[in-house]
Amino acid sequence: MFVYIRDHFEFVRAIHDFKSLFGDGPYCEVQDGEQVKGLNPYLKMSGKLRRLLQTFFVAFLAVYTTLLAYQTLSRAGPFNNVISESSKLSNVDYRYLSEDQVGSVVTVSERKLFTTNMVTSATATIRPPTTTLDDVFISVKTTKYYHKSRLNLILKTWFQLAKKQTWFFTDTDDPEFQKRTDGHMINTNCSSSHNRKALCCKMSVEFDTFINSDKKWFCHFDDDNYVNVPRLVRFLGDYNSREDWYLGKPSIQAPLEIISRDKTTQKVKFWFATGGAGFCLSRALALKMVPIASGGKFIGTGEKIRLPDDVTMGYIIEHLLKKPLTVVDQFHSHLEPMKFIRKELLHDQISFSYSRNKDEWNVVKVEGLDVKHDPYRFLSLHCHLFPHYSFCPR
């Protein structure tokens, strides 16, 4: 703007000098500080030509003034663009963008903002996209020996909260439970034994089935787990499935140490989430596992380290992919004393389990149905969490 004013006054002064060539009248000259009629000593021309030149300079003045104004606004243009782009960026909610999307926004802004020698700083909290039940793939590992005793209990309780999202992986065809699960029972054709190869075989099928789905989260549980489905979904909502997440709870107090069976015999340490409590993997992490875990490769890795499925999972993620386990205390296995989970905290837990130690049951301590009808306490737990079910005491 200052440049515009300076240029404008210089032009006005030039026009004033030009007027002095013509005077205020058709014929005039200055004598003793006064204008008198007569011929201008600096220029002799006809009145018609002089009027033509005056018209030309008036038009030129208008054009020149317009150009000066346009140039002034053009100088301010980049600054206005920066403000505009900054406003656009400030309206972008980074909390709902993936790393790639955030990167693309920053890349575009760099080209438009940083070339103006201006530095724009902002803080943004990245929040994961909204997680719904349909984003979760829940797998339950079982065997034909436990269909009647364990699956019956699951189908009556928490399965009712996630019928379309829960799949059962077993080792036989069972028309009855195939119907009761609405076709969500998969025969893995793996052995029904409990050895590491059979366990890794089922886990391999679970993993591949998830990869072939469109789900964002893979959550594995055993057939002796109770899953608090709404709590699981809320919990996963705190994490971004586009990032690498290995969520679970170890059953040991220190990382597992094994001897590597590669060419160099060296000790390897890693954590693993116990399958007895359940664990979840984000899709981003699962996709990174595909080259070394899908298509039966998971079984081969388990055989290589000679350890069961949940340990093999930790070996692949923590040791091979260098992705850490995030410990989640709300997952619980039968290896923990269930009775120590306080009643007021039950709603906040994700999974529970049970076991029998000699003559004593390791079960959740919760009031409800008679112990004879509910020895595992899953029915009573379900009624405590969701009291509207018909079998719950009134």
TrEMBL record:
<protein>
    <submittedName>
        <fullName>Fringe glycosyltransferase</fullName>
    </submittedName>
</protein>
<keyword id="KW-0808">Transferase</keyword>
<dbReference type="GO" id="GO:0016757">
    <property type="term" value="F:glycosyltransferase activity"/>
</dbReference>
<dbReference type="InterPro" id="IPR003378">
    <property type="entry name" value="Fringe-like_glycosylTrfase"/>
</dbReference>
<keyword id="KW-0472">Membrane</keyword>
<keyword id="KW-0328">Glycosyltransferase</keyword>
<keyword id="KW-1133">Transmembrane helix</keyword>
<dbReference type="GO" id="GO:0016020">
    <property type="term" value="C:membrane"/>
</dbReference>
<keyword id="KW-0735">Signal-anchor</keyword>
<comment type="similarity">
    <text>Belongs to the glycosyltransferase 31 family.</text>
</comment>
<feature type="domain" description="Fringe-like glycosyltransferase">
    <location>
        <begin position="130"/>
        <end position="377"/>
    </location>
</feature>
<feature type="transmembrane region" description="Helical">
    <location>
        <begin position="52"/>
        <end position="70"/>
    </location>
</feature>
<dbReference type="Pfam" id="PF02434">
    <property type="entry name" value="Fringe"/>
</dbReference>
<dbReference type="GO" id="GO:0012505">
    <property type="term" value="C:endomembrane system"/>
</dbReference>
<keyword id="KW-0812">Transmembrane</keyword>
